[in-house]
Amino acid sequence: MESKDTDMSVNKGFEQVSKSPRKKGQFTSPNDEPLGKPIGVRLPPSLEAWISEEAEKQGINKGNLIRKLLAETKSYRTQQSA
Q: Which domain of life is it from (predicted)?
C-alpha cells in the first residue's frame, strides 16, 4: 500500500474553523444568522472555475463566497427597490 504525501497546511477548511470564534469550548458560526438546509446547484464548468478561483483569492471556501455574493445581491436589490 502506497502512502500519499499530504500537506496539512493547505487545508483551508480547517483554517476557517480554527479562526472561528468559540464560546465555552463549542464552535460558533461566523455567519450572522443560522444556516438553513443545504441546497444543491449545478453550475457550468466556467462559473464553477471562477467561484473556485475567487474563493481562493479571498481565502474563503466556495460556500462562504456564494453566501457572500447572494447577500450582496440581496442588499443591492433591496436598496434599489426602496
A: Bacteria
